[in-house]
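Write out this protein's structure.
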Amino acid sequence: MGKKQRRAKLVPVNSKSIHNVGYDPDMQRLFLDYRGGRLYEYFDVPDELYVRLLNATSIGRFVNYAIKPHYHYKEVQHRPAWVEE
């Protein structure tokens, strides 16, 4: 059996700090595309947390309290071809 194909479509959100968000449900990876141009990948994020993020009153506040302190992440230096915009 081959490797799973990564996929994450970035969608715009209403936030002062985050331009787009994306989620790969197969890999449980969350992508946050900040307005300053940096893209971050968060690991092992459950589907329901992504849904809560999309429905949050303040996306930036939700990221700061519910995601950043609890999930490992890294900055994506080169935007991968599989990240769809």
